[in-house]
Write a structure and sequence with these properties.
By secondary structure, this protein is mostly helical. The chain has one domain (about 10-90). About 70% of the residues lie in helices and about 0% in strands. The protein contains two helices and no strands. It has helices at about 10-40, 60-90. α1 (about 10-40) runs antiparallel to α2 (about 60-90). It is elongated and about 50 Å long. The two termini are about 15 Å apart.
Amino acid sequence: MPSETKASTSAKILYRPVGLVGSIAAGALSGVLVKAIYKRATPGDRADPPDPLESEYRLREVLVAAALQGLVFATVKALADRGGARLFQRWTGEWPGN
């Protein structure tokens, strides 16, 4: 079991801009990845996953696209959050979470 270290209040506050930049970058990267995966996984020339309000798609296609978006976003965000926290720890010596 990993040892838990409490982050100081100043570390948490100083980490906020790092976390915000990481979240924005993760969101942008997720969008690019979802489009690339969806384009390769679907037949034809569809480049973008369907939105829920696009009536020309079946519900199944909309749900699969939404699940793909959620999976990719959550994974990329977790990687960005963890990487940002590790980088912050290297720079400051303090873990920003917990």
